[in-house]
Design goal:
The protein is mostly helical. The protein has one domain. The protein contains 12 helices and no strands. It holds the Pfam family CobS. Belongs to the CobS family.
Length: 243
């Protein structure tokens, strides 16, 4: 139970209290529950979409996006902002990129990227809401958080002492492939919509991982957070474009 509570506490702003200081092994095992947390977040957004009912499309999209950000506490947006500043300001240099990523201040590049990401999400939500039932509200957060354990399982963690070090060192390698495979199969009950979302998410993951290996030789907590935001955008935009 503790690994699930760790995942909920780390990925959401739900009022979750741990029974005590978690062991490193429990932190690593929390990765098994990241896809489940994404699924729960998606279900919460679907419930809100149902409650909003006949609200105007623009307002409904804005409220859904605001709730989406609030439920995650902006955690991944913060990682995206730090990554954007570092990626541009690092000028291709690994050490300079990692150093800028540690700076808590946000520069103009971070602001521009955050605005663009939120704008794309809002526009995609408007388009999807106009098309009818919106499975994307479930699939986007679900798939994006399922990519996090995949990233830690396949990519070296390069910042010693970072928040993700315990995750990387103690992740359950034998169980993770089975858990991720089960979630992928469960998602396919949505048919071609889920297949399109899965392809978009995995394509984004492959490109992002390649960029991380070329620039940093691996991942950090900030770049993992950026992956979540970018994957959500990829899924929403892909489904909106394909109707």
């Amino acid at each position: 139970m503790t690994p699930l509570l760790i995942a909920l506490q780390f990925l959401t702003r739900l009022p979750v209290r741990l029974p005590g200081m978690p062991e490193p092994q429990q932190i690593g095992r929390s990765l098994l529950f990241y896809p489940l947390v994404g699924l729960l977040l998606g279900l919460a957004l679907l419930a809100l979409e149902w409650v909003l009912g006949d609200t105007s499309t623009l307002l409904e999209a804005a409220l859904l996006l605001a709730a989406w950000v609030a439920l995650s506490g902006g955690l991944h947006l913060d990682g995206l902002a730090d990554t954007a500043d570092a990626w541009v300001g690092g000028y291709g240099d690994r050490e300079r990129t990692l150093a800028i990523m540690k700076d808590p201040r946000s520069g103009p590049i971070a602001v521009v990227v955050l605005v663009l990401v939120l704008l794309l999400k809002f526009a995609a939500l408007v388009a999807l809401l106009e098309q009818g039932p919106i499975a994307a509200l479930l699939l986007a957060p679900w798939l994006a958080r399922a990519l996090l354990p995949l990233l830690f399982m396949t990519t070296p963690y390069v910042r010693a002492g970072g928040l993700g070090q315990a995750l990387a060192e103690h992740l359950p390698r034998r169980e993770l492939p089975w858990v991720l495979g089960a979630h992928a199969l469960l998602g396919l009950v949505f048919g071609w919509v889920a297949l399109v979302a899965l392809v978009a998410a995995l394509a984004l993951f492959a490109g992002w991982r390649r960029g991380l290996l070329q620039r940093l030789g691996g991942t950090t907590g900030d770049t993992a957070g950026a992956l979540v935001e970018l994957a959500e955008v990829a899924v929403l935009v892909a489904l909106a474009l394909l109707g």
